[in-house]
Amino acid sequence: MMRTDDRGLCVSGADRPAVEQFETALSRLLCGNGDPEPACAAALARCPEFAMARTLAAYVQLCGSAAAGAARAAAMLPELRQAARTDRERQHVEVIAAYSAGDFDDAAERLDDILLEHPRDLLALHQGHLLDFYRGDQRNLRDRVARVRHAWSPALPGHHSVLAMHAFGLEECGDYGQAEDLGREALAIEPGDTWAHHAVAHVMEMQGRRREGIQWMRDREPQWAPDGGSAVHNWWHLALFLLDGDRSDEALALYDRRVAPGAGVLDLVDASALLWRLALREIDCGDRWKLLAQLWAPFVCDGWYAFNDVHAMMAFVGAGRWELAEQLLATMRHRLGRPGGNRAMTEEVGLPLARALADFGRRDFGAAIALLRPLRSRAQRFGGSHAQRDLVDLTLLEAARRDGQASLLRALAHERLAARGESPLVRRYLERAADLRGAA
Ligand SMILES: [Fe+2]
């Protein structure tokens, strides 16, 4: 007799204790809280033919968003193919084949196909959600989740994760009220759901609620720190709230204590994004750039994901490692001639943005502005969140200030004021624009 998981989906090759280990791994992955790999390994040690545990292990490799992880997932394919018994399990194998080959769009669509027949496949929903995030597919960040909610009820294990994903998708689509409600509803069910916590943090970030945001992060820190999968990213969000309140020293101290990177790409992205924001405020980041550039250097030839490449570029520019910056640009140009989802992301956003950052670093602010201005309305196509891509706007504002472009600076500062309300940064830019115009 075939077993089922906790949502009633058939799973082959497993006994009940192995299913329980799988559920633990799945919950850790979805909550961003704790390492899913030991529980997954325990399930497979007990039942080596457990196809969905093998599938989860491959997705864990893929969602680290690095070429090395994709290669590890690709290496798992022969065993996965052998273990898969049901149609759903075989469909997952094809998703992993497409994903690990870099065909992100095909993988995302195949996951949608699985969800049409199996709307309670939480792993498919989660991986689709992450792919929507990585591909900047805002509509599906919200609507992939909306399409499955008919099959869910509060009694089903993992319901809070569905609410958390829906909350984040709603936030990225600008529906802040509903996003916050669903995020809080998810947290009432499972306080350790860091994706729900993070969705509410995004709402506060987008609405300029910096004091409330700091409180939100600090009050709930025991739920997502210190070693949950999302801890570094949550500290990064705390640093954004601090920066928004002009508390740069505290943000830098937080970088040293909490954000300063390990070797994983997702942590390196947060580290680059924070140091770059500090540098835009002319905070001396000292040797931090040097170390960060060293950690990015092994990824310079990967060409796996344009969003990562741009964050590597920040470190190379910050450290003055121009040889690495040039090598990265060459990798990105080479990427344009190869198939896969990253080609368009590189062409439309990644490469021009990386060039703009290099121009900014060489103090050619006019060239940086010329590249950044047309880029802003299509920047979502290379993925990430609005909060992460805010870096494009912040760099443009600072380039306008440093280049003395008073009218552009005034316009951009007013745009930010309208979107996020008053902040010390906006006030400074408005004053500077008025000074520049007065002096003209
Ligand atoms: Fe975030």
Percent of residues in helices comes to over 70%
Describe the largest sheet: 2 strands, antiparallel
Strand content: under 5%
**CATH topology term of the largest domain:** Serine Threonine Protein Phosphatase 5, Tetratricopeptide repeat
Could you name the CATH class of the largest domain? Mainly Alpha
User: What is the overall shape?
Assistant: globular
Briefly summarize what is shown:
The chain has 24 helices and two strands. It has 440 residues and is mainly alpha-helical. The protein has three domains: 1-135, Serine Threonine Protein Phosphatase 5, Tetratricopeptide repeat (Alpha Horseshoe), CATH 1.25.40; 150-259, Alpha Horseshoe (Serine Threonine Protein Phosphatase 5, Tetratricopeptide repeat), CATH 1.25.40.10; 261-403, Serine Threonine Protein Phosphatase 5, Tetratricopeptide repeat (Alpha Horseshoe), CATH 1.25.40.
What does this entry look like structurally?
With 440 residues, the protein is an all-alpha fold. It has three domains: 1-135, Serine Threonine Protein Phosphatase 5, Tetratricopeptide repeat (Alpha Horseshoe), CATH 1.25.40; 150-259, Alpha Horseshoe (Serine Threonine Protein Phosphatase 5, Tetratricopeptide repeat), CATH 1.25.40; 261-403, Serine Threonine Protein Phosphatase 5, Tetratricopeptide repeat (Alpha Horseshoe). 72% of the residues lie in helices and 1% in strands. It has 24 helices and two strands. The protein has a two-stranded antiparallel sheet. The radius of gyration is 22 Å and the shape is globular. The chain starts with a strand and ends with a helix. The mean pLDDT is 96. It binds fe (ii) ion. Fe (ii) ion (FE2) binds at residues 198, 202, 233, 237, 385, 387.
